[in-house]
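My main concern about presentation is that the manuscript never shows what a single data entry looks like. An entry of this sort, consisting of the sequence and the corresponding backbone structure tokens, reads as follows:
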Amino acid sequence: MKAIILKAFGDASNLIEAEVPIPEISDDEVLIRTKAISINPVDIKTRKGKSLAGKLKDYDPIILGWDISGIVINTGREVSLFKTGDEVFGMINFPGHGKAYAEYVGARQTHLALKPPKISHAEAAAGCLAALTAWQLLKDNVVPGSKVLIHSAAGGVGHYAVQMAKYLGAQVTATSSSKNKEFVLSLGASMHIDYENQRFEEILYDFDFVLDSIGGEYTERSFKVLKPGGTIICLPSAASENITEEARKRGLNGDHFLVQSDGEDMKEISYLFDQGIIQSFVSKSYSFDKIRDAHLQIETGKTRGKIVVLIDN
């Protein structure tokens, strides 16, 4: 089968197409013919030798990627959740060696959910790591009436988080550039802050929850908008090592968060897609042989919604 392997940590030119064996699945796994994958910032950071590179450095070959949507073509002896022919999607084996940049992928049944028929493989693949991150963050931190601030609301995690927070009954404020104002408002935000021209901490106050995917000064500024006992959660790329202690000193709750593969949560996300509660915004799709270009697009830091790669096999 064709796969994109990482010959060395570094720039996107180190992603090369190669022929590798079709995965052998264990008793609790399914073999999936991949139809679409999505690219996330963690893919780029790992490719460069950061993030999960330490976990993957001893594998040969290294095959990046964790988000897949495709069709089950074989099942292990202990698999009871899926059968041959099922269309499934999920974030597989994260944080670990997902090996999603391939025509066929082996995945644990407990990392997957059935793909709703009404969404495409591209939309499903988009709604894995990013949607799962947003859902795992929000479902235990947001209650009806919560005031929620979501930074980078037009991005991958952010655009799902706005929709989910709205569904959970929150009053959502979103930051993005001015060009994305109408987009984030259409997702369900009730207020937009143009981060390029407005200091959100001078406008906002008494928030219950902040989702911070930026870090640095944004974390410090975000402390100022939280009510006593409020919570800020930072994604790994944004998190200060001392965020919990820094928040505690201010009478706040703070932590960093790393998403985990979870089929039960994916079932909940599948339901949200099926009911039309959330939608994936795919700003651009690439063919498998253009995966370097997909990486370069994510590296701009200016992607609206998600980037996906389609696999014609």
